[in-house]
Amino acid sequence: MSGGQVLWAVGDGDDPGSLPPGAGRVVGAHLRRLRKERGLRLVDVVKAGLVGSAPTLSRIENGETPLKADRVLALARFYGMTDAAQLESLERLVSRSKDAQWWEEFRDAIPGWMQRLISVEASAQQIRTYEVQYVPGLLQTSAYARVIMQHAFPDTSTEDAERGHARRERAVKVRQNRRGLLSETSAPDYFALVDEAVLARPVGGAAVMRGQLRELYNLEENAERAHIRVLPFKAGDEAMAPAPSITYLSFPADREVDMVYLEVRNGGSYLTNPDDVERYKLALTRLWSKAATREETLALLEHYISRLAD
C-alpha cells in the first residue's frame, strides 16, 4: 500500500526473518519520536556523546540491535523524559526485548505473516480483536486449534502425511504457548469479540466444540485480563464489520506504533498509518457497543453448550 499504510503484508512462505523483536521495536520507535519532538537530528545526539555514530542510533531506533538499559534511559532523559513511571516502563520493555523468542524453534510451523504478530503481542498494553469465523487464536483449546490447523496445513500427498502431522502439532504447540500470555502478571488487557456464528459452527464436532465453549465461559468468568463478548445475530446489519478478522494492538510507550492486524486466508496485513489505525479502532468500539452484555454472553455460551450435550 502506498503512503506507508501497511507496515508488513506477506503471504505464506515469505520470510520476515529480518523483523525486529516486538519490545525492542517499541522502545526504538518511542526514542525516535522523543528525539524528533525535540527537533534533534541523529548527528546532534552523536555530538552530545550519547552514542558512537548515527548508524548505531538508527539501529537502536529501528529495534535492530540489542538494547542496553543505561543507554536507553540516558537517551530518554536527554530527550526530556523525567517521569519516573515512564522511565520504569521503558526499562521493563528493554528487559523484555532481551528475552529469547520462544517461537523461534517453531518457525517451520508458523506462517510468515503470523510471526510479527506473535513477536509484538507480549509487548502490547491492550489487544482488541474481532472474529467472524473462528475463536481467536489466544483463546483456542488444543483440540479446537488442532482442527483449525488441519485445514491450514492439509496433507498434499500420502508420503507427506507424517510430516504434515508433525507440523500441525507444532503449530498447536505455538497456539498453546501464546495462550500463556494471558496468565502472566504483566498480561495485556485482552478484549475478544466473537460473532455468534462462531458459537454456532461446531468445529471438530460436538465434543471439541463443547470443550471450546466451556473454555470461553471459564475465561470470561475467571481470567482477570480477558474480556469476551458475543456479537449476536439480532444485532443485524448494524454489526457489520469492515473485515472478518481484526486485531488492534496498543503499546504503553508510544502511541505512534499502535497497529492493526488484518488476517485473510493465507495472508495478513499490518497497518500503522494513524488514520487507518484510528478507523479500525473506532470500528471495534462500535462493534463492542452492539455486543451482548457479560451476562448475555455467558447465557449465549450456556445455550450453545447445551445444544452440544450428549
Can you describe this structure?
The protein is an alpha/beta fold and 310 residues long. It is built from 12 helices and 7 strands. The chain has 2 domains: 22-97, lambda repressor-like DNA-binding domains (434 Repressor (Amino-terminal Domain)), CATH 1.10.260; 105-307, Endonuclease, Chain A (2-Layer Sandwich). It has helices spanning 22-37, 42-47, 54-61, 69-78, 84-97, 112-121, 142-152, 161-179, 196-200, 206-222, 274-289, 294-307, and strands at residues 6-11, 126-131, 189-195, 226-231, 245-250, 259-264, 267-271. It is globular and about 70 Å long. The N and C termini lie far apart (50 Å). The relative contact order is 0.14.
Keywords:
310 residues; alpha/beta; 434 Repressor (Amino-terminal Domain); Endonuclease, Chain A; 2 domains; 7-stranded mixed beta sheet; 7 strands; 47% helix; disordered N terminus
In short:
It is built from 12 helices and 7 strands.
Helix content: 40-55%
Mean pLDDT: 81
Domains counted in the coordinates: how many?
2
- SS class: alpha/beta
Q: Treating each run of at least 4 consecutive H or I residues as one helix, how many helices? A: 12
Distance between the termini: 50 Å
What is the count of β-strands? 7
* Integer-rounded radius of gyration: 21 Å
Beta-strand proportion = 5-15%
Q: What order do the strands of the largest sheet run in, or round the barrel if closed?
A: 1-7-6-5-2-3-4
Biggest sheet layout: 7 strands, mixed
Low-confidence parts: 1-21
What's the shape?
Answer: globular
CATH level 1 name of the largest domain: Alpha Beta
